[in-house]
């Protein structure tokens, strides 16, 4: 009897100390240095949403969507959060990448200037100076904005420089506006000056394009279908949770990266991001559920104005899949 109890006790002890099944290590590389748009990933990690799906998430800052896309193509990052049109340009040239979820389904592109300059509509841009970064995604779509709004290049002056030069031009008064994302450059300007800016949004003038989303290596997706589903499930839940608690989500960025910004502008930047998650067609759907129409319109615009190879129009569905997203209510 004693021997039986001893054996049972040993078995129970062995069971108690045996480690739980190890979580899958996953690296998510962002499109850029951290800013408010990234809050859901940090919030999802902090709240244990990824852990609940058996995922040990590492979030890495990026150095541009093109560089992150290259890292995912080379499998040095498992997933990337990037500008989807940038990914399309790489994919059409042979990079083995695909979007497994498109989060920003309305474009954040805008022309923005200080509120006190009272530049609130395209007509107000006439006679002003606009700062741009040559060859970036916004500059490529800028001619379409001009066409949609009846503006001509001769209606305003242009100054060019890299991302920081562009910001400095507006901050220092050398330019009246810059081309930027409503939740990114606007917050950088506010951090630097304490002053609000007003964005003239491209999307308000008939430019229907997707923006940021999750991408993965196509071979990685095929080989790790269950993990991809769990990652997209966790990320969907993280976005939904962050939407309900914007300030707490922004605080999660600072908890992980104390030099990641200021709580007020991180929160405001994230709050400006939330309306971009859905279109009129997807307003009742969970995050990432992009429509075929939205993606097709994006491809068509990029072919006409954004330098995307015309063969992309043959099969827009080659660039994305909704197959790994959680169903409604799951």
UniProtKB/TrEMBL annotation:
GO terms for biological process: thiamine biosynthetic process. This is NitT/TauT family transport system substrate-binding protein. It comes from the Bacteria. The lineage of its organism: Bacteria, Pseudomonadati, Pseudomonadota, Alphaproteobacteria, Hyphomicrobiales. Residues 1-22 form the signal peptide. Gene3D superfamilies: Periplasmic binding protein-like II. Residues 37-249 form the SsuA/THI5-like domain. Keywords: Signal. It holds the Pfam family NMT1.
């Amino acid at each position: 009897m004693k021997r039986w109890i001893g054996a049972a006790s040993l078995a129970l002890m062995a069971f108690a100390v045996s480690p739980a099944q190890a979580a899958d290590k996953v690296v998510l590389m962002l499109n850029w240095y951290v800013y408010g748009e990234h809050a859901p990933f940090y919030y999802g990690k902090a709240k244990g949403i990824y852990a609940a799906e058996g995922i040990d998430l590492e979030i890495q800052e990026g150095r541009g969507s093109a560089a992150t896309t290259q890292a995912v193509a080379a499998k040095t990052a498992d997933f990337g959060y990037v500008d989807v049109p940038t990914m399309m340009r790489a994919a059409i040239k042979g990079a083995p990448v695909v979007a497994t979820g498109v989060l920003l389904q309305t474009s954040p592109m805008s022309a923005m200037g200080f509120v006190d300059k009272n530049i609130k509509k395209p007509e107000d841009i006439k006679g002003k100076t606009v700062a741009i970064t040559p060859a970036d995604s916004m500059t490529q779509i800028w001619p379409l904005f001009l066409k949609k709004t009846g503006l001509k290049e001769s209606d305003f002056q242009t100054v060019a420089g890299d991302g920081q030069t562009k910001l400095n031009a507006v901050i220092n008064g050398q330019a009246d506006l810059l081309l930027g994302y409503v939740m990114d450059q606007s917050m950088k300007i506010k951090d630097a000056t304490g002053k609000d800016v007003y964005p003239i949004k491209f999307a308000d003038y008939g430019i229907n394009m997707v923006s940021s989303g999750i991408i993965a290596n196509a071979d990685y997706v095929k080989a790790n279908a269950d993990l991809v589903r769990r990652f997209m499930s966790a990320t969907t839940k993280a976005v939904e949770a962050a939407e309900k608690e914007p300030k707490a989500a922004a605080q999660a960025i600072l908890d992980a990266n104390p030099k990641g910004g200021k709580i007020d502008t991180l929160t405001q930047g994230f709050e400006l991001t939330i309306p971009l998650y859905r279109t009129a067609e997807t307003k009742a759907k969970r995050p990432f559920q992009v429509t075929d129409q939205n993606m097709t319109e994006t491809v068509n615009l990029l072919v006409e104005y954004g330098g995307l190879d015309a063969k992309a129009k043959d099969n827009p569905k080659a660039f994305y899949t909704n197959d790994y997203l959680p169903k409604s209510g799951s």
